[in-house]
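Narrative summary of target 7.
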Amino acid sequence: MGTPSTSPSPQRPRGRPPKMAAPGAVATALRLLDEEGLDALTMRRLATALDVQVGTLYRHFATKQDLLAAMAEEMLAGCAGPLPEGTTWQEQVTELAGRLRAALLRHRDGARVYAGTHAVGPNTLSYTDTLVGVLRAAGLPTQAATRTAFAIVHFTLGHTLEEQAAAELIDSGLPAALDALHAALDRRRYPNLSDAAATITSTDFAAQFAHGLNLLINGLAVR
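Modeled conformation, tokenized:
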């Protein structure tokens, strides 16, 4: 029998737990969002990815809703950048709404993350301030411009929610869903929808978004 080793066994280093920076946590959360989706993004899952204790996360984000607000704020980075020179207010509104849609589409479940958050960071506030400013410059009073800006944001958010949900369906079972829809469109009961079947089942989301946004803008122009 050999002589027992007297060398000390490995021990975990003592001292303070690893530090965590909030911006790094948000970046990791967005990466996990893209890889696994919102339903799989938990505070515990994020803590594991960061190699920190869950309690460390809660020192920066009191609730998961606070984390989602920070993620929404990060998603809007650059959305309030300078607008193209020599453009009309209609073109500027279209540009800003398009930027928001693109920002949400850039991340899996991006619209679900953004919905219901109330971020007060510079990205969010600058974007909203820019949109309200364009509408005020077009002649709307401050209150009407602000409410109109909310209407545009809500339309963009709602459309993108549906767009991303449809994208998930395309990956999982769109043919079956389309077959069920076509089967339900009985011409005798739903003649108008039956005639519009091609439009209803279209996946040209950019065209649908442009049509809805133009309705809002044209209504403003008449007003």
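Residues 43 and 54 are 7 Å apart (CA to CA).
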